[in-house]
Each structure stands twice: as structure tokens, then as C-alpha cells.
């Protein structure tokens, strides 16, 4: 990578070139120009990223995190199915409270991962 007077003349700005490891841009700025120039560079990088996020980023509102009725019904069905399977296992053998909790969460994870088939 070749940079002259703040302009990238050739090369690609990638993780290897920008990283803090030896030979990276941050390391070279520190070695050749000192801590103040490195601080300014990092601050300007952060300002650039913030500006980009302001114009191209996205956000979600609380409404985006609330499940609709159909999804809530599916989730509740999965939970009830897992509870029933654990209850059946509990009736078949001697299961203490700790074991019950472990089995329940295990069955719940299984149903969520498998899509409640």
C-alpha cells in the first residue's frame, strides 16, 4: 500500500493493512509520526465510520421485536410439547427437580432447533 499526503495511491485498505500488528498502517503511523498523529488518524477513522452509519445504517424499534399472534402461538405450542415430553419422562422414572429442569431445557432446545416437527 502506498499513501502519500493522506491519499491512497495504490493498494487496498484491508484488515492486514489497517491492523495494529507490525507493518500495519496504525503501527507505521505510530513509528513514523508519533502518538498524536495516530490519535488523530483513529479519531478521523471513527468519524468516517459514524458518518457512514448515520447515512447507511439502520435501526430497529421495539415494534420490530414483538412477535405476531401466529408466531407466539407456535412458540407456546413448542414449549407445551417440550413440557409434555419431560412430564412423560418424569412419570416413567424417578427424576428430581434438577433433572427435570435439565430435561425440560434440553427438550425445548431440541424442538426449537428442529423446527418443532
Characterize the structure shown.
There is one protein chain. This protein has 117 residues and is mainly alpha-helical. The protein has two domains: 2-56, no CATH class; 62-113. Helices cover 65% and strands 6% of the residues. Strands 1-2 form a two-stranded antiparallel sheet. A hairpin with a 2-residue loop joins strand 1 (2-4) and strand 2 (7-10). The longest helix has 24 residues, at 69-92. 2% of the residues are buried.
Show the helix and strand layout.
Layout: E1 2-4, E2 7-10, H1 15-18, H2 25-33, H3 35-56, H4 69-92, H5 97-113
Antiparallel strand pairs: 1-2
Helix pairs in contact: 2-3, 4-5
Main attributes of the structure:
117 residues, mainly alpha, 2 domains, two-stranded antiparallel sheet, elongated
Outline:
The chain is mainly alpha-helical and 117 residues long.
Give the structural class: mainly alpha
- Biggest beta sheet summary: 2 strands, antiparallel
Strand order of the largest sheet: 1-2
Order of helices and strands: EEHHHHH
Helix content: 55-70%
Tell me the distance between the termini: 54 Å
Q: pLDDT under 50 segments (min length 5)?
A: none
Number of domains: 2
Mean pLDDT: 81
Amino acid at each position: 500500500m502506498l499513501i502519500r499526503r493522506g491519499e491512497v495511491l495504490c493498494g487496498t485498505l484491508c484488515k492486514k493493512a489497517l491492523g495494529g500488528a507490525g507493518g500495519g498502517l496504525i503501527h507505521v503511523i505510530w513509528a513514523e509520526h508519533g502518538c498524536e498523529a495516530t490519535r488523530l488518524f483513529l479519531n478521523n477513522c471513527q468519524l468516517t465510520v459514524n458518518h457512514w452509519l448515520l447515512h447507511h445504517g439502520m435501526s430497529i424499534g421495539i415494534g420490530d421485536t414483538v412477535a405476531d399472534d401466529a408466531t407466539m402461538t407456535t412458540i407456546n405450542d413448542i414449549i407445551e410439547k417440550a413440557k409434555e415430553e419431560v412430564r412423560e419422562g418424569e412419570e416413567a422414572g424417578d427424576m428430581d427437580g434438577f433433572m427435570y429442569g435439565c430435561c425440560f431445557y434440553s427438550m425445548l432446545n431440541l424442538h426449537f432447533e428442529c423446527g418443532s416437527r
